[in-house]
Amino acid sequence: MSPTTPPPARPAARARKGEGQWALGYREPLNPNERSKKDDNPLNVRARIENIYAHGGFDSIDPGDLRGRFRWYGLYTQRKPGIDGGRTATLEPEELDDEFFMLRVRTDGGAVTTEQLTVLGEVSQTYARDTADITDRQNIQYHWIRVEDMPAVWAKLEGAGMTTMEACGDSPRVILGSPVAGIAVDEVIDGTPAIDEIKRRYIGNPSFSNLPRKFKTAVSGLPDVAHEIHDVAFVGVNHPEHGPGFDVWVGGGLSTNPMIGQRLGAWVPLDEVADVWEAVISVFRDYGYRRLRHRARIKFLVKDWGPAKFREVMETEYLKRAMLDGPAPEVPAVPYDHVGAHRQRDGKFYVGAAPIAGRVSGSTLVEVAKAAERAGSNRVRFTPQQKLVVLDVPESEVPALQADLVKLGLHSKPSPWRRGVMACTGIEFCKLAIVETKGRAVDLVDKLETRLKDITDGITAPITVHINGCPNSCARIQTADIGLKGQIVTDDAGNQVEGFQVHLGGGLGLDAGFGRKLRGHKVTADELPEYVERVVRHYVAQRAADERFAQ
Ligand code: SF4
Q1: From 254, 273, 402, 419, which residue has the greatest number of CB atoms within 10 Å?
Q2: Where are the beta strands (DSSP E) in 126-206?
Q3: Which residues line ligand 1 (CB under 6 A)?
C-alpha cells in the first residue's frame, strides 16, 4: 500500500465492546481526543501557529490546539511554577498551564552534526533561557519557549536540517537508533538507512498522523536502544542463510500495564524495514483501540491478538506476502550505554560522556560542538540513557577531548551513580508530575559519590537508578535496577511529603523483565540517598561473583 493511500474501508462488523477500531467500522470518535483529530488533522496546526498564534500570543490559542494538536510539533504547555505535587490531580488543565512551552526537537537516532549541535545550543540560548535536556528518547527538550518565537525557532532548526514535526502527539515519534551505528565493532548491521527511509516516507505524512496513541520505533543493529519496550522495534540479527538483517518486535511499552514486546519471529532485510514498519503502523492505525486512551497503545492489541495473529494480519492485509522466519538477536552480557572511550571499526574512537540525568544547557551544547571539532570530529549522538557520544575521534585526541568534556560537566569516566542515574522532567516543568526529579538526581549522585566511595571500585556492572515524577514511567521505572515512582507519601511524623514507590531488580537485555514492585515499600525523597546506599551495600555484600543487580 502506498503511504498516501487512505486506510482500507472494511465492512462494518460488531467489535467486542466497540473499541473504536476503524477497521471494524467504528469511524465516529468515542472520546474528545479522537474528536479533535477527526475535526482537523493535527499537522494543520503549524499554519495557525505561524499565521495567528505567533502574532496574537498565548491568549489567542484555541484550547483544542493548545492541549492537543500543538503536540504534533513537539509543543506542550509547561507547568506553572509553584504548584506542589499534591495538587496535580485536583486542578483543571488550565490551572496548571503556564504560558510557556516545553519543545522537543526530533533527532532520529540521536544523530546530529556539530553544526546542528551548535544550532540546538543557540536556539536554547536565544529562545529557551539556556535550558536543554537530553531525553531518554534521544531528543533535545527545551523549556520556556514562547509561541511568539516559534516561527523563528523553526526557521533556525529547519535551516540546519532539523524538525519538531511529530516529536509528540498520537503520531510516529522520534525513531531510536544506535548511537554508534555504522562504527561499532560488534554491530550486526547499520540501521541508519532504514531510519532515514522511514523518515523520508512517513514522518509528516497525513496517512499516519492520526494514530490511536503515540507510536514509538527503534531500529538498531545492536541491542542498545531498549527495543523490548517499543511499539515496534527492529533489532540486528544474523540469519543463518540470508545474513545480517533485523528481528521484529511489537507491543512493548511501560507506563501502566507494562509489557515486554513480542517477537514476531520474522527476519527482515535492511531494504524492507520501511515496508514492514508501514505494515505494523497500519495495523495499529486501523485495528488499534480508540475508545479509551489508557487502552489505546498497540500493546493492548498485541496482548489480545498474540504475535501470530498480528503477523498474519500484517502479511495478509498489508504486506500481501509472507515474511521470512528468523532467529532471535543476541543478548548482551552487560547492557550497552556507550560511556567511555571505545575503538571504532575504522580505528578511530568514540567517546561517551555522562551529564547527570541528561541535564545540560544550550551553552554546554555549543561548547561540546567546539570541543568535538577541536578533536577532529563532526558527529555527536544522544543516547537512550540521557548521555552523549562524540564519534570519529583520532586516538591522539581522546585525552584532550575527555578533559574538555569534564570541564563541561560531562564525564567519560563517571562514577557508577552518575552513569546509572536517569530522571524524567518532573515537577519543575511537567504538568502530570507529583515530585521533583532532576534536582533530586543531582543531589543523589552527589551524596552517593561520597557515601559509597569505599565500595565504588568493587562495582563492575552499572547499577541503574531511574527517578520518575509520576506513574507514567517516562524514565522507565520498571526497567531499572532501582526504579522510583514519584508519589506523595507519609513521613514518620505523619506529614504528606514527596517520596517514591520502589521497584527493584528490573532490567533489559539478558534478563529482560520488570522490577518487582515492593508493595507498601515507599521512601520519602529526603530518605532516598540513605535508602539507595543501604540497598547497594546489601547487594555488594550478598552477591555471587559477577552477579548483576537484577539477578
Ligand atoms: Fe511527567 Fe510523569 Fe513523565 Fe515524569 S514520568 S515526565 S512526571 S509524565
Answers
A1: 254
A2: 131-134, 140-145, 172-177
A3: 424-426, 430, 432-433, 468-470, 472-474
